[in-house]
Amino acid sequence: MSTAELKYNIFELISSIEDEKRLKVIYQSIKSNSSDWWEELTEEDKASVSEGLTDIKNGKTKSHSEVDMAIEALIKNHA
Questions:
Q1: Cα(first)–Cα(last) distance of the chain, in Å?
Q2: Considering the chain, what percentage of its residues have pLDDT values greater than 70?
Q3: Which of 11, 19, 34, 41 is 20 to 30 A away from residue 50, measured at CA?
Q4: Which residue range forms the structural domain that includes residue 68?
Q5: Domain of life, per the record (predicted)?
Q6: CB 22 within 8 A of CB 30
Q7: In angstroms, what is the C-alpha Rg of the chain?
């Protein structure tokens, strides 16, 4: 299927939808996929992501099982 055919088929499908809520969901999905999510983050969020990436580069990570054990210990100590 060509790009033109795909666009036409999507247009046809969307044109037949009468439910405004469903149309808004589709609109938001398309809109969010076309924007750069990084630019939508706050400066605080960007700093947190950068800090996390630095931690990963420096080997400051925990495995899933390590986190599970830590959570279990917290639950036992507070139960």
A1: 59
A2: 97
A3: 34
A4: 43-79
A5: Bacteria
A6: no
A7: 22
